[in-house]
Amino acid sequence: MSADNVPSDLWTDVQAEHYDASCDGRFSSEIVEATTAFLAEMAGGGRALEFAIGTGRVAIALQDRGIEVHGIEYSEAMARVLRRKTGVIPVTIGDMATTRVDGRFSLVYLVFNTIGNLYTQEAQVACFRNAARHLVPGGRFVVEVGVPPLRSLPLGQTAVPFEVSENHVGIDTFDLVTQRAISHHFIRRKDSTYDYVPHNYRFVWPSELDLMAQLAGFAFEARYADWNRAPFTAESQSHVSVWRMPDVGCSPSHLVSPSLI
Fold first, then answer.
1. What is the DSSP secondary structure assignment for residue 244, as one 8-state letter?
2. Residues 198, 199, 205: CA angle, nearest 5 degrees
């Protein structure tokens, strides 16, 4: 995989301008407060790097907590929205699987399903390795992502609506063989017509993410159902997972099961 051929949608001006409004419920003040409190604790006073920083809805609030935040964003359109809000957070344009930012960080994080924006397994594995390259020893990689909602699929069907409101209708369609999916967004304009905005992604299971982390040299630390650290169970619809780089002097060999050596 080369930096010129990254399997990820390049979000447009239409998506960027609608993004904050379409995610209002998902980024309520209570959720943002819980999210940034968790991330600030994981950063431990060090610098944080957000992959797929988008319009900065989490990054700005985390910066307000006193954490120095940097970002990587694939879409210049999304980054322009962020820059209208603040000039304090540096943003590097590029994909999160290969793009490098100067310096090292105590925390690298991904929120709101953005690991799926890379819609091949190869690219997702590369994203974990890229996170590891940016972290100091003992640094953490935090990923928030939904559990694939395949139990919601009626027998023989491949589509699940995830939002039906006056201004936005969203339907996910799933390919159960490739783990590829498409979010179909129908966004209402002021004149009552609709923009159709599809988004390709790859759904991924927690156990598969753990293997990606292991391949990148991480140790598993914790998994929760949400930012408030509710227990993760078989009924959880999403998870917040934490992996940690070994401290100085620790060998990553302990991350491999003895049965595999």
1. E
2. 140
Domain spanning 13-148+204-260: CATH superfamily: Vaccinia Virus protein VP39 (3.40.50.150)
Euclidean distance between CA atoms 157 and 172, whole angstroms: 11
Q: If DSSP codes are grouped into helix, strand and coil, which group holds residue 18?
A: helix
227 in Cβ contact with 31 (< 8 Å): yes
Candidates 229, 232, 183; CA nearest to 205 is 232
Rounded-to-integer distance, Cα 177 and Cα 158, Å: 12
Which is higher by pLDDT, 6 or 122? Answer: 122
- The pTM score is 0.86
> What residue spans define the domains of the chain?
13-148+204-260, 152-196
125 to each of 46, 97, 208, how far by Cα in Å?
25, 8, 10
Cα(232)–Cα(224) distance, integer angstroms: 5
> How many alpha carbons fall within 13 Å on the CB side of residue 98?
13
- Looking at the DSSP bridge assignments, the partners of residue 164 are 169
Return the SS3 of 161.
strand
Would you state the pLDDT for residue 4?
Answer: 52
| Distance (Å) of CA 4 to CA 1, 16, 232 | 8, 22, 37
Q: Would you place residue 248 in the very low, low, confident or very high pLDDT band (cuts 50, 70, 90)?
A: confident
The partner residues of 107 in beta bridges, in order of sequence, read 48, 140
What the block records as the tokens of 49 is 């790097």
Mean predicted lDDT score pLDDT of the chain: 89
Do the Cβ atoms of 144 and 226 come closer than 8 Å? no
Are 128 and 220 contacting, i.e. CB atoms less than 8 angstroms apart? no
